[in-house]
Amino acid sequence: MLLGYYVHDLSPFLLDFGNGIGLRWYGLAYVAAFVAGYWLYLWLARKGYSDLTPAQVGDFITGVALFGVILGGRLGYMLFYDWPAFSSNPLVIFKFWDGGMSSHGGMLGVVIFTFVYSRMKHVSWLNIGDNLVVTAPLGLFFGRCANFINGELFGRVASTPWAVQFPKELYDAPPETVQLALAEARGINPQWTAVANIVDNVRHSPQLREHLAATLSPRHPSQIYEAFLEGVVLFLLLWILRTRFRLPNGVLTGVFFIAYAVLRIIGEMFREPDAPLTMALTRGQFLSLFLVLLGAAFVLQALRKPTWAPKFCR
């Protein structure tokens, strides 16, 4: 007898105090990303790879986190994925608790913030960017892991042995599938009358998981694929280039944008589209094409007028 697929039943909370209040894994992912990014950037600064002094790293990473990643990521999501809601009520951008962050928006926000910061502190924009992109895959890794724990941004239908059945699929499933799942849920508890009840209680009810196993589609755990590609693979590439090669300021930033775009396009091949397609491309793939152009511009500028990190000028 073959083993059944895993029905996703992880809690989004590390500590759940009830009524939607608690310590969420998603929030912890951001904290872990910023802490890891700080320590890694601090190490690079101490080794002479950055124009920033070690004393400046804390303020810089804090600014990147608040104005680049969080504000840029939220604004990017509203512009790229939920324009109707944003255009009807711009204040919705401040509803961070509703979720919705865009990695492309976060990157654009970081680019703008680092440019402004470099002008204020009279340091090389390309240099601080090169060191920052080495830390960025750590945040991408933690974020994708949090996506998996939340059971969101799941993959396309698959038949692989490691496929996962995600209850949140029901939010966008055909009406007949939703009605079947709700009927089964009400048979267990008459008060479970909405998809949200199923999502919230699947981890508490083995009987509900058994019913969902016969209803939900097995899917690629694309969040894990992307955590490996955008996190592990991208970090190793940038770390090797930063610590093993003497490269002009700006090359690493360009490599990051190009490599991220390629790896994101690959990962999106396994991910269920969460927005209408653009010329047969998912929204993430389409936006990644512009990152390739941006990355190429950074590399060309770096090679045209090469400058070097302090470590390479001694």
Regions with little confidence, pLDDT below 50 for 5+ residues: none
Number of helices: 11
Which H/E pattern describes the elements? EEEHHHHHEHHHEHHH
The figure for the number of domains is: 2
- Radius of gyration over alpha carbons? 22 Å
Strand order of the largest sheet: 1-4-5
Beta-strand proportion: 5-15%
Q: Count the strands?
A: 5
- What structural category characterises the helix and strand content? mainly alpha
| First and last CA, distance | 66 Å
What is the subunit organization of this protein?
A: single chain
Mean pLDDT: 93
Helix content: 55-70%
Instruction: Specify the biggest β-sheet.
Output: 3 strands, mixed
Task: Give the overall shape, derived from the CA principal axes.
Answer: elongated
Strand and helix layout:
Blueprint: E1 6-7, E2 13-18, E3 21-24, H1 25-46, H2 54-80, H3 83-88, H4 103-121, H5 125-150, E4 164-165, H6 175-188, H7 195-201, H8 206-213, E5 218-219, H9 222-244, H10 251-268, H11 283-304
Parallel strand pairs: 1-4
Antiparallel strand pairs: 2-3, 4-5
Description of the molecule:
With 314 residues, the chain is mainly alpha-helical. It folds into 2 domains: 6-158 and 219-313, no CATH class; 167-215, no CATH class. 61% of the residues lie in helices and 5% in strands. The chain is built from 11 helices and 5 strands. It has helices spanning 25-46, 54-80, 83-88, 103-121, 125-150, 175-188, 195-201, 206-213, 222-244, 251-268, 283-304, and strands at residues 6-7, 13-18, 21-24, 164-165, 218-219. The strands form 2 sheets. It has a 3-stranded mixed beta sheet with strand order 1-4-5, with helices on one face. It has a two-stranded antiparallel ribbon with strand order 2-3. A hairpin with a 2-residue loop joins strand 2 (13-18) and strand 3 (21-24). The mean pLDDT is 93.
